[in-house]
Amino acid sequence: MKIRQLVFLAMFAVSQSLVFGQASAPLQLVPWKDEMFKVPKVLESRHDGDYLILDYVSSRDINGRDAIPEKQAKPERVSLEVNSMQSDTRLKTRHGWIRHFTVGTTTNASIIVVYLHGKGGSRDQGVDDKTFGGNFNRLKNLVAQSGGLYLSPDIASFSGRGAKQIYGMLMHYAALSPRAKIVISCGSAGGVVSYQLCRQSDLAERLGGLILLGSFPNNQFIGSDAFESRVPVYIGHGSRDWVSYLQKMDSLYLHIREKSPGYPIRFERFESGTHGTPIRMIDWRKTINWFLTQN
User: Fold this and answer.
1) Partner of 36 at 20 to 30 A CA spacing, among 63, 133, 167, 295?
2) Global pTM?
């Protein structure tokens, strides 16, 4: 076994004592480069902090995080030891084979986190260590070092077949980790699949949270099984997103609050950010740990 694999496994063992040290406490993802990935300062706070306008500056938050802007994160932001726990695999579902990456443990996982890419993307995006300032590398490390399972699948289509394949994959791994909550995260059009998954009652029972990054609104979420179960929702959006307009996601946020007062939903608006900004800027640990305190 390579030295870096041994080092990572030792770190993993220590993290387990931190995650599960107090049986009565809710699961929390262990710290990992938190200071490097903290969100910018708050320019404005609304609704008791549920809606934040954040100070995003591309010259700082792209150039300051990347060695090669938008192509290569600075090396200190990335740790590749986690890739010793990464596997490119495929699974046969009732609706066909689905290719996907797994990172972490595939059985008795503490948590299951899935990332659904947008149109033109693939399973490679969610495990890319270089792009988005290293934020996917951080997510892999956070989940794996906390005893969880991270999944990054191909989406065959954004219609019913693609969602059915993702559903089959999630239920397969859910059966192998019966105590794990499932967090669905998506970028852009991946939200189309996410909303379909939210209408599956047996999956909704296991959902720990829904993350929408530069995604699109769909009022069918209201009344879905996930909505009725009050699954926590996080929306991250750039104020200058010309692919999915900010105002439409604002409307979804307000609609959910109106239909269900006190609903656990948070919105982070990255001022001057564009379509891919929320994927780069989301603080995965802060967001997922908030989810875990709501369940």
Assistant:
1) 295
2) 0.92
